[in-house]
Amino acid sequence: xxxxxxxxxxxxxxxxxxxxxxxxxxxxxxxxxxxxxxxxxxxxxxxxxxxxxxxxxxxxxxxxxxxxxxxxxxxxxxxxxxxxxxxxxxxxxxxxxxxxxxxxxxxxxxxxxxxxxxxxxxxxxxxxxxxxxxxxxxxxxxxxxxxxxxxxxxxxxxxxxxxxxxxxxxxxxxxxxxxxxxxxxxxxxxxxxxxxxxxxxxxxxxxxxxxxxxxxxxxxxxxxxxxxxxxxxxxxxxxxxxxxxxxxxxxxxxxxxxxxxxxxxxxxxxxxxxxxxxxxxxxxxxxxxxxxxxxxxxxxxxxxxxxxxxxxxxxxxxxxxxxxxxxxxxxxxxxxxxxxxxxxxxxxxxxxxxxxxxxxxxxxxxxxxxxxxxxxxxxxxxxxxxxxxxxxxxxxxxxxxxxxxxxxxxxxxxxxxxxxxxxxxxxxxxxxxxxxxxxxxxxxxxxxxxxxxxxxxxxxxxxxxxxxxxxxxxxxxxxxxxxxxxxxxxxxxxxxxxxxxxxxxxxxxxxxxxxxxxxxxxxxxxxxxxxxxxxxxxxxxxxxxxxxxxxxxxxxxxxxxxxxxxxxxxxxxxxxxxxxxxxxxxxxxxxxxxxxxxxxxxxxxxxxxxxxxxxxxxxxxxxxxxxxxxxxxxxxxxxxxxxxxxxxxxxxxxxxxxxxxxxxxxxxxxxxxxxxxxxxxxxxxxxxxxxxxxxxxxxxxxxxxxxxxxxxxxxxxxxxxxxxxxxxxxxxxxxxxxxxxxxxxxxxxxxxxxxxxxxxxxxxxxxxxxxxxxxxxxxxxxxxxxxxxxxxxxxxxxxxxxxxxxxxxxxxxxxxxxxx
Length: 820
Description:
By secondary structure, the protein is α/β, with parallel strands linked by helices. Among the domains are: 43-72 and 516-540, no CATH class; 543-819, 3-Layer(aba) Sandwich (Rossmann fold). The protein contains 25 helices and 15 strands. The protein is elongated and about 205 Å long.
C-alpha cells in the first residue's frame, strides 16, 4: 500500500483517503499568518478566576485607608477673597490704564503659581513669626494645605488654608492676604520703575536718531535747492513748456531775418558789391590800428609816387621809399588777417577806401606836378587791381559846362546812397542774427538742463519720502516715549495697591466637613483597583490558555470538546464492566457528558467514517491526554462500537495504571517480536473495548513506532475495529507522536488550561503543519466550570443526573445492540 491520489482526487495513505481540511483537518494557513501567540485579557474572567487575589490585596488597602480616614481629627478652614486689577484713584482720574490693567490680561493659572511659590510663603511665615511666634508655621505644611482658586471667570481669587488649629488657619490666611496685596503694589512699582528706566535708556537714542534724520532732510533741501519736492515736478514741467514755446518763436524770427539777409545780399551782388567784402571793410574801419596803418600806407604810397617823378628808378631815396611802402603794406595785411581772421586775397587785398581815394584825388589834381587825365580817357590802371601796390585811383576830371557828366554824377550818388542803406541794413541783420542765434542756443541749453532736472525729480521724491518716513517713525517713537514716561510717572506717584481685599480672613468656629463616606468609597475603589491590577499582572504572566475563546483564537483549529476539571480521586471511579456510572459526583457526570460530546464530534469528523484511527496527544506532559483517551474509548464502547485503545507512550505509559493491568507485555513486545497482538489485548465494557498497554520501555521508542511492523499493525487494527485510539507521547521534544500520526488518519490535540503551554502548543501546531500531519482539531481539557462561560451551560443539566439516563446513551445502546 502506497500513498497517492484516489479517482475523486482526494489524498490517500495506502488505500485510505485522508480527510480534507474542511472536515476537521488543520486549516490552511498562508505563509506569514501562523497561529497567534497573544490574546486579549477578559477582565470579567480575571475577576472570576482570581477574586481571592483581588480581595487579599484590596481589603488591607481599604482597611488601612478607612482607619486613617475615621481617625482623622477635626480640621478648620479659613478663607479670604482678593479682587485683582483694582485701578488706583490717580489712574482713574487721568484715564491711564497703568500696570494694574496689564495684570488683567495675565493667565490666572500662572498668577496662582506665583502666589503659592516659596518666596511669598516665606514672607508670610516671617510676618507670623513676628506677631505669633508660638504658632511656628512650617512652609511645607502651608504649601500642601494652601488652596488659591479663581472664582468662576471673575477677577476674584479665594485663599483658603486648612489646619487642626483654627487660630493657625486664620493667621496663615491673614498673613498671606497681606503679603499678596503688598506683592501687587511692589510688582506694580517695580514694573513702573523698569519701564521708566527703559524709557530713560531709549529716549536719548530715539532723540538722536530723530535729529539725524531732521539734519538729513535739511541738507537734502539745501543741496537740491528744493522748497517743496511735491510741486517741483509740476514747476519744472511748466518752465520747460515755456522755454520750448520761446525757442520755437525765436527760431521763426531767426528764419525771417536770415531770409531778409539773403535778399539784401542778392541785391548787393546785382549792384556789383561783395557783401562779405563790405562786412570786412566795415569791421576794419572800426579797428583803430588798421586805420592808423592804412593812413601811413597811403602817405607812403603818395610820397613814393611823387618821388618817382623826381628820381630815376634805382635811386637810393626812391628805393628807401619803396621798401618803407612794402613793409607798411605787409603790416596792413597782417592787421587785416588779425582782425578778420583770414588773409587778404588778390581781390580782397587792403585797398585805400573810396574816401581816401577821394581825398587823394583832389590833391593830385591840384598838385604842382600837373597830373591830369584827358576827358573820357581811361585810367592808367584799373580800379579792381589787386594789392595795395597796384592800387591807382582812377577818376575823371569833368569839363566845365558838361551836362552829361553832371547827370551821371547825380545818378551815381543816388545809387551809392541806396547801396549804403543796403549795406547798413545788412550789417544790422548780421548783428541781430548773431544775437538771436546766441539767445536760441542759451534757451536750448536751459531746456536741456530742465530735462535733466525733471529726470532727477522722481529719485529725489523717493529719497525725500524715505527721509520723511524715517522722520515720522522717529518722531512717533520720541512722542510715545515722552507720553508714556509722563503716564508712568503719574502712576508711580499713586500709592494705592492695585489689588483689594474683598473678604478678610476670619477665625473659623466650626470644623470643616470631611465627607467620610466619599473618602471611604474612594478607598474601597482604590483597594479593588490595586487588587485587580495585581490580578491582571498575574494573568499576563500566566502562559496558560485560560478560556475556550482564547484557545480558538490562538490555535485556529476546530474545537472538538471542552472537558471540565475533575479531581484525580473522582476520575478513578470508572464505570464497571456493565457500563453503569457512579451517580454520587456531579463533576464526574459533567466530565462524562463532555466526553460524549467529544465522541460525537470525532465520529462526524470525516465523511463515510474515514477517520477511524486517531492519535491523541498533547504539547506537554500532564495535560490529561491519557485520561481523555481512556474516557473516549469507554464512551465509544458504551455506544456499541468496537474500540481498540493502544498505549503508544513507551516512555511514560499510563493506561496500564488506569486499568490496573500488568505491563510485562504490550506494544513494544508486539513490534519487537513475532508475538500476535491479539495475545496482548485486554477486554472491558462487555468485550467491546480492547486495551493494549505500552509494554516494557525499549531503548529507542521512535524506531519501533516508525517501523513497517507498526504500519502493518495499524492496518490490521483498522480492519478489526470500528475505532483505533492511540495514546501517544507529548509532542514537544520528541518525534514519537509525529511518527504515529503519519500512520493514522489524524491527530487530536488535548490542551490543558492548567499548564503553561501557550507557546508550546503554537509551536507544535506549526511543526505538524510543516510535517503535513492531518490535525483534526483540539479538545480543551481541565476547564474550570465556575469561570468559563462555555461550561456554565452544563449546570442546567446537572439536575437530570441520578434519576434519568441520558436519552442519547439509551438510544445509542439500543441501536448498537440491534445492529450486533
